[in-house]
Amino acid sequence: MTAAVAATARPGSRAVRRSPFVRTIQHQLGMQLVLGAWFWGVILTGVILATVLVASFGTVETSIVQFARQGTLWFPFSMMVLTVTSTLTPHVAAGMTRRSFAAASAVVALILGAAYAAVLVGLLQVERVVYNAAGWPQTLTDSGLDITSSTSDIGPLLSSLTMTAAAATASGLLVGIVYYRAGGWWGTLALPLTVAPIFAAGLLVSYAIGPISLPVVGEGGVWDIGSAGGLALRAAACAVVIAITLAVFGRLTRGAALGKPNL
């Protein structure tokens, strides 16, 4: 016992103290890991059930997993809104700064966007293998996946989904801080501006977006989404949109008055 205590209290040894920035990232990622596990569990269950039902009573002609794309945008978006409105006050009350909260939340938003996109692309690959084995066509009909006609084009698919998902999580932070500072009425009225990064990213990395199917500029030129250079330019433009969104979120967070969110 004495030897054990002496060993733990060895002269010169120092306890590892993590910065508020690192601790906040760990806390938020831990929370999002649990929520993400539930989300993907529900998605996977639904995909399996839908595939079995369609195969039993009809003909499987399109990808079922593709319909999870909207969920990979709006679920993490809503989680980022809740993160800001429910944890900013306890974070500052615990003695940490708004700056550390803003920086950590931005990092978590980017990680979350990339993770949701990677899982979706992974599920599409698994589905492709299953469909090939069963002799079913894996047709993609979702306009947000029109960057490619086949899920075997992993690079463009992953780039497109990562950018749109990261724009969604960054936008969620912005929506959350506007609601936190300005309240329900102004937060709702500001939605056309605060969710605009999602639609901007969607327009930049797909041929069309939404039911209105807006054409995008640059076809045949340096911005042609079908070329590697064009896709890289569009991804860079998306990164700028996301960076601006996170910068505005950070500025609004650092100037936020501490208190109960005005929802």
Automatic annotation (TrEMBL):
It comes from the Bacteria. The keyword Membrane applies. Keywords: Membrane, Transmembrane, Transmembrane helix. The chain crosses the membrane at residues 33-54, 74-94, 101-124, 157-180, 189-209, 229-250. This is Integral membrane protein.
